[in-house]
Amino acid sequence: MDKLRITGGQKLHGNITISGAKNAALPILCASLLTADDIQLHNVPRLRDIDTACKLLAQLGVTAQVDGENITLNAGQITSLEAPYELVKTMRASILVLGPLLARFGEARVSLPGGCAIGQRPVDQHIKGLRAMGATIELEHGFVVAKAKRLKGASIRTDMVTVTGTENLLMAAALAEGETILENAAQEPEIVDLAELLIKMGARISGHGTERIVIQGVEKLHGATHSIIPDRIETGTFLCAVGATGGELMLHNTAATTMQSTLDKLRKSGIDIECGDNWIRGRMTQRPQAVSFSTAEHPGFPTDMQAQLMALNCMANGTAVIVENIFENRFMHVQELIRLGAKIETEGHTAHVKGVNQLFGARVMATDLRASASLVIAGLAAQGDTIIDRIYHLDRGYDRMENKLAAVGAHIERLRQESL
Ligand code: UD1
Fold first, then answer.
1. Does pLDDT of 256 surpass 80?
2. Given ligand 1 and candidates 121, 156, 182, 328, which is best to mutate, with the most ligand atoms within 8 Å of its CB?
3. CB neighbours of 79 closer than 8 A, spacing ≥ 6?
């Protein structure tokens, strides 16, 4: 397994181009199942999760032509309606094939994702919504087995706000008979991006980006071309990095309008942030100030930025109180940050972070995707060498992160398995 070695203490200066959003690209790749025509995608990030999604789609019979950040998919010749355990277990978002397969082919078998490092994460709401649209759904031998002649529009209120749940139901409703109303829908920019692709494919959707989405089902969808929105979590991660090290980063191909709550908190930490149409400049000339925050559904502060902003708080002036409201077990980075000298105490969903003057390099282990990013941020600011093990988590969701950081002055290198 590859590791990262970071020699901390270098200020970051320069330009970084932000990649397309992982969490927009994954549902959009799955939306290709809704039509027999070509779906041409641009600005697709190069990530392990994207490779996994392409493997899963290939298993179903979808062809994919990949040319760097451009992918053309065609689901004209589907050969299987089953998403196997081996792929679903490595990526929970595989559940996103359920809605499209069921809506277009009347049947789907998707392995249950099972438990996951950051909490229980069940898919009961996906199932509840599809049942309301007339599907019969059984759980058999660890698979969700869904059948429906043609889904029928329904009024669905999920018990909690769920991002992939909203996406699954949105895709299913696009091909259902009649009107579907999704209440308590997720409002994330990635949902809006998916809806915009579906509209280009001929779907009739309104209200996306609000908590009430209305879909008039159509009989058939057609091909489309779409460019994935920029990754707001990658953008926020680099801003935390410059906040931790000091310096100035110019982030290109990003969208400040999708991440106001993150930018508000980062400004409070002392980062001087300036935004344009498709760029954000972050400049840090002081020790960070502690900033307290609670995670919430969009437009609140994203749980996917919690670990990174916690890392910044570890070296801040003052004490921050951090409340994680979305996932029950998302503080696994705490123990690793403590290895670097951080002072953190947790109690249930709350962490108290008392900033220290200096973190010190150590060997640490990545436990999940965003936890890995928090260790990179802490390592960049720490004195001495930090070695991060299990960075396959990082590769799932960050597009060549160490290259982007090295180009702006970080001392960071990948230690390949064979060189260890
Ligand atoms: C998505 C994101 C992930 C992000 C999360 C919250 C993708 C591919 N992943 O994950 O990066 O951290 O949103 O912003 O977009 N829940 C249920 N039953 C369900 C569905 C969800 O109880 O059927 C619960 C979950 O356990 C969790 C909460 O609802 O506590 C929110 O989960 P959800 O929004 O569904 O997360 P994901 O879509 O899996």
1. yes
2. 121
3. 60, 61
